[in-house]
Amino acid sequence: MIRFAAAVTAIEIALTIAAALWVSLAEAPEPYLSRAELRALGFEADAHSTERKQRFGAVFSYDTRASLAERPGALYVSLRVGTPPEEYRARRGGEILLSGEPARGVTTVLDSDREGVRSYSVRHRGPDGIRAEVVFLRGSEMLIVRATRPDVPGGPGNAASAACERAARIVQHYMLRKLGWA
Fold it and tell me: By CB count within 10 A, which of 27, 50, 120, 154 is most buried?
């Protein structure tokens, strides 16, 4: 009788440990970009914040904002869940409209769709500053990565635009791997 009780207890303990491991390993990582992750990517943040936004009682987005000590000046990363395709199309359409208004600056929009993922990138240089943004829509999840910095009159505009785009792409590649999309 004692052997049976010991065997049942050992099985219960093993099942409890296995269930705890399964739950902890199967859970998706937080879709935020932490200060430590930024540092590992080569960015030093002066200020860093994360926010989980809700709309209609459900999670809408996981946002990370960081003010950087060096170029580019700021990073914004947002993973939006439950995103309808219309929101992606409206966002992209707004960028295309912006590209048609030279008074607001020079905007380039490039589509880079691939199997199962719709995406586009934006490079904008306007009177307020420089912005590079990449947007991915996979199923009902939309990842937005934006790098911005103020424009310096007479400064190296193309180099600054390229630096913003490079920063956005570094973060984008990291987030795609973190989310399991790549």
Answer: 120
Fold that domain 30-179 belongs to in CATH: Protein Transport Mog1p; Chain A (3.40.1000)
CB of 135 within 8 A of CB of 109?
no
* Contact between 177 and 88 (Cβ < 8 Å): no
Residue 146 has pLDDT above 60, yes or no: yes
For 66, 145, 148, 156, 164, the CA distances from 70, given in Å and listed in that order, are: 11, 17, 11, 15, 11
How is the chain split into domains, by residue range? 30-179
pTM: 0.80
pLDDT of residue 24: 59
